[in-house]
Amino acid sequence: MKSLALFAGTLVAFSAAVALAQTDASPIDSSWGTPDMAFASTEADGLVTPVGYYASAACGHGGQCDCLCCRPTLTNGLWGYGYQLADQGIGIQSSLTQFYQGPASGGREQSFSYGGKFDLYVDFNTEKMGLWEGGDVLVHVSEWQFGENANADSVFASPVNANLLYPTNRPSYALSHLLLTQQLGAGYMAMAGRYSLLDLWQGFYPDYGHGLDGFMNVSMVLPLNVIVPTVPAISNMAALVQAEERGLKRGFIVMETTNNPTTAGLDFQNGVTLLGFERIYTEFGGLGGSHTAAFTYATGTFRDYNPNGWIPGPAGLVQIPILTKQSGSWSAAYIGEQRLWQDRCDAKRYVNTRAMLGFADHDTSPYGFGATVTCEAFGLAACRPGDRMGIGYFYYDLNNGFQEAIQALGPAQNVHGGEVYYNAEITKWFHLTADLQAIQPAYKANDTALVLGLRGRIDF
């Protein structure tokens, strides 16, 4: 109850602040525009002033203003300093996201948990900084997780909160992303450094984010059977990729297979993972789409889930498999997405569908075949352009060897489930999401988990 009271208290406090700002704020006479970039600015009367702020229909001021309900970030671009830094090539973004989530029925245990994540990003543009052309350094300076999460209480093999798995599945802090990119010409770009998988994934598919705006379940965000065990959550990488106007087109990535969430350095304790991908962009009926094929191969040593004999379990009641290790592991995936509807007057309002199919090495991966289908709407209602909502379904085939390996805790089964969410824009800097998940757990003894969640995100 204390966790719920803390979450509710935060919402009430910010709602009161918004209401007060709407009452007392006064219009500002300016010529601000409405660009997409959060750090853009313009010169007016010798002062650097932020742009991108405009009064909504609900503002009540009738013109452009800097009231609390209209600004895109709570601090108005770090009280103006953020916009000046952006002009010099240093972009800063930060947010605080709070979660209150847990299984209302089924799962392992009916218990709700309160947790949160503070994220701080700094983007250094080397050309604007006067260093060299075509360079960019993206740093996830602070990834601080606090409180608890519902992943262990809900289901096994499909965590219900992707973001609270980072940096680890418990309270932790890390510098998780330090990636240098360099433009080489002809659309080619070299990348090297430390990466966080959620940050890297957002570069491929910006719509799906970090589990902070859209779906929460990790299976809705990432293809689990492609990631486990060959692609670490946080590690080191080097890549050569090619991009076009609509995004990344093809590339080859070499990454250290060992997961290093809270430590830095190159040690290659378990070899490397090679990842290649090819992406084709399409257009049907004036609506864009893409089709991506990816393949991974890891050179390290992994657990072999094909039992090599059996030993008696506790009191001789069950048999426990003898598991060995083998070298190498592979996975393959197809990811397709397609716009179903697009507002001709507003590019930010659209409906998108996505399908992910994955295949993994049955000997070394807990998962065999996996599939995910999602549909999301961004600003579907013209009166609520900042809202988004989605519905999706996933299925994972747990391979027979893995099911046998975990049978000491009870008979196992394949995992599948669905998720639906609605993300409401309370202000441009504060979003509140209601989330519902229904999941058939890996252990047959556990009933279907009905997981409820609230998520509040504040952009500073």
What does this structure look like?
- The chain is mainly beta and 460 residues long.
- 13% of the residues lie in helices and 47% in strands.
- The protein is built from eight helices and 21 strands.
- The strands form three sheets. It has a 16-stranded antiparallel barrel with strand order 3-4-5-7-8-9-10-11-12-15-16-17-18-19-20-21.
Note the topology.
Layout lengths: L1 H23 L16 E4 L2 E4 L25 H4 L1 H7 L2 E16 L7 E13 L9 E13 L3 H4 L17 E3 L2 E9 L2 E9 H8 L13 H4 L2 H4 L6 E11 L2 E10 L15 E13 L2 E18 L5 E3 L6 E3 L2 E19 L7 E11 L6 E12 L9 E11 L1 H6 L9 E13 L2 E11 L8 E11 L1
Antiparallel strand pairs: 1-2, 3-4, 3-21, 4-5, 5-6, 5-7, 7-8, 8-9, 9-10, 10-11, 11-12, 12-15, 13-14, 15-16, 16-17, 17-18, 18-19, 19-20, 20-21
- Alpha carbon gap, first and last residue: 27 Å
Q: State the major sheet.
A: 16 strands, antiparallel, barrel
Give the topology string: H per helix, E per strand. HEEHHEEEHEEEHHHEEEEEEEEEEHEEE
Overall SS class: mainly beta
The portion of residues forming beta strands comes to over 45%
Low-confidence segments, ≥5 residues, pLDDT <50? Answer: 10-58
Q: How many separate helices?
A: 8
Strand numbers in spatial order across the main sheet: 3-4-5-7-8-9-10-11-12-15-16-17-18-19-20-21
Percent range of helical residues? 10-25%
How many individual β-strands?
A: 21
Average pLDDT, rounded to a whole number, is: 82
Q: Any idea what the shape is?
A: globular
What gyration radius follows from the Cα positions, in whole Å?
23 Å
